[in-house]
Structures are given as structure tokens and as C-alpha cells.
Amino acid sequence: MRLRELRKSKGISQLKLALDLNTNQNTISRYETGEREPCISELIRIADYFDVSIDYLVGRTDSPR
Amino acid sequence: MRLRELRKSKGISQLKLALDLNTNQNTISRYETGEREPCISELIRIADYFDVSIDYLVGRTDSPR
DNA sequence: ATAAAAATATCCCGATGCGGGATATAGGTG
DNA sequence: CACCTATATCCCGCATCGGGATATTTTTAT
Question: In angstroms, how far is C19 C1' from A20 CA?
Fold first, then answer.
């Protein structure tokens, strides 16, 4: 999950991201640390939010889209 | 999940796909009917297997890659 | 340097939902 | 019809998810 990288590039906090995605700050933290994995619909919401492909988000490719 | 479509285009059964992916036939069935969702690592394995993007697999884009 | 504030990680816990084995139902094929 | 293959469903144990609350770390301001 390239989540932290993406979030930082936007210059926002876990809390702001969480609110924007209708979830919790601790959930974002866990995604970033890899302690938990989001479901597919969440994955799509995140990819939409950062305008990147899911493949990029999960580190399957190097090109954002 | 464009799983059924992809599997059929390969002309293989749920059982064969399941064996190839080291999982169970009923699990594949559930993915196809949408009753259950795979975790990310499984998603990657499936996309690898069919050589398509995850975005395509989950129906987020129309181009396979 | 330190106090306050913001950001992030961790703890606990209930509940959701995953995957497996087994079984039922459907779809051919001879 | 009897048989075989393919797919869906049932039951259930267990893993893991997400939330609230809290601890820890990092930043900011004075």
C-alpha cells in the first residue's frame, strides 16, 4: 500500500484523509503500517481519492495510472 | 469483479482456477457471485493469473491493462 | 527548554465476514 | 434415466476488520 506516500504528497493528515473517506484515523494508520487491509470498495475509494490506479496503490505497478 | 468473464474466456472451470490459485471452488464461486470479496493479496494473484490490472478485474476500468 | 497541540500508533473488543468441508442443485452427455 | 461435471449453498470456526479510547511520538509556539 503506497498510502502514506500518496497522503504525504497531498500534505494532509491521517485524520483529514479519514474524514474525507468516511472512516477513522486509526484505520488509516493501520492501512499505512500494513497492520490491516481495506476491502475492495475501500480500495476503490482510496484510489479515486488520489486519482491513481489500484495497481499503483497496492504497489503492483510503478506508474500511477 | 470481472472474474467469471475472465475465467470463461480462458475456458476453465471454477475448480481448475481454484486449484491453480491454491484455494477452493466454493471460494471462487462466491467471488463470482459477489457473495464474498478476496483480500488484496488474493486480488493480486488473480490479476497475475489472468494478466490483467486489478482495476480491470474489479471493474474500475474497461481496458484490461 | 518546555508546555501545549497535533499527528500517529496501539489497546481492547464486538461483530463482520472470510475460507473450508460437506452437501445440494443444476447442466450436460451417453 | 443414470452418471459426471460444474456451480451454488449450508454450517461453522476463526481471522480480521473497524471503532472508541488511549498512549506515544512529533510538531509548534512561547
Answer: 32
pLDDT at B1: 86
Restricting to B residues 27-46, those with a Cβ less than 8 Å away from any Cβ of A are: 37-40, 43-44
**3 state SS of B1:** coil
Query: Which tens digit of pLDDT belongs to each residue from A11-38?
Result: 999 999 999 999 999 999 999 999 999 9
Cβ neighbours, 10 Å, residue B62: 8
pLDDT of B3 reads 96
CB B34 within 8 A of CB B41: no
pLDDT digits (tens, 9 = 90+) for B2-27: 999 999 999 999 999 999 999 999 99
Span CA (B63) to C1' (C17), Å: 30
Q: Show the domains of chain A with their CATH numbers.
A: 3-57 (1.10.260.40)
CA A46/CA A48 separation, integer angstroms: 5
Does the beta carbon of B55 lie under 8 angstroms from any beta carbon of chain A? yes
